Amino acid sequence: MTEQSPKPFLYVVVCAAGVAADVSKLITAAQERGWEVGVIATPVAMNGFFDAVAVRAQTGRPIRSAWRTPGEPRPFPEPDAVVVAPATFNTVNKWAAGIADTLALGTLCEAAGLGVPIAVLPCVGTALAAHPAYRDSLERLAAMGVRFGAPYAGETAPDGGRTEFPWERALDLVRPG
Ligand SMILES: Cc1cc2nc3c(=O)[nH]c(=O)nc-3n(C[C@H](O)[C@H](O)[C@H](O)COP(=O)(O)O)c2cc1C
């Protein structure tokens, strides 16, 4: 049986980009806005891109990365919204192409069909973002109703500073109403 959550349930899909180290900021902000959060990470992201122990403690739930076995119950309730932050070049392209070979991608491929709001905060360097496949992927996902934050390249400015990743923008994009 699928668990019911008294609060709206937000899936946070985490990809393997450097900024994922700060994903706790997104979880805190989401919880402050009344969301219950379940994290689904790509297998590469689980490989040291963020503090999985801290995120597990913060959400009170296991992080999902692998498919469950057929006999296991669904680990999270159905989502009321999905955010992908950070979203990598790799995941954006595979998702747009309909590839579902990880739990994160399978979840994303299914999400648009569920009719729930989906927000994406890409973190893709300028050179990679120039690839035509990436532009096509963004267009295709936008046509499916997926909402995007501003491009973020994560590159260092000439003064040595770096723009903060806009975590809370993802929550604004899935806000009801
Ligand atoms: C330290 C580090 C930082 C990375 N940062 C990014 C990034 O910001 N954006 C990106 O698209 N890929 C980045 N990559 C490359 C991805 O990790 C790689 O393409 C991976 O296959 C993505 O897997 P995923 O989309 O399944 O998470 C980074 C790799 C490393 C080792």
Count of domain modules:
1
Strand percentage, roughly? 5-15%
How many helices in DSSP terms? Answer: 7
Helix proportion? 25-40%
Q: If strands are numbered along the chain, what order do they take across the biggest sheet?
A: 2-1-3-4-5
Any low-confidence stretches, pLDDT <50, length ≥5? none
Rg over CA atoms: 15 Å
CATH class: Alpha Beta
Q: According to CATH, what is the topology?
A: Rossmann fold
The count of strands amounts to 5
**Helix/strand class:** alpha/beta
Termini separation comes to 30 Å
Listing every helix as H and every strand as E from the N terminus to the C terminus, the arrangement reads: EHEHEHHEHHEH
The CATH superfamily is known as Flavin prenyltransferase-like
Overall mean pLDDT = 94
Examine the secondary-structure arrangement and name the CATH architecture.
3-Layer(aba) Sandwich
Described by the principal axes of the CA atoms, the overall outline is: globular
User: Can you summarize the main beta sheet?
Assistant: 5 strands, parallel
**Distinct ligands:** flavin mononucleotide
Keywords:
177 residues; alpha/beta; Rossmann fold; 5-stranded parallel β-sheet; 5 strands; 34% helix; globular; binds flavin mononucleotide; Flavoprotein; Flavin_trans-like
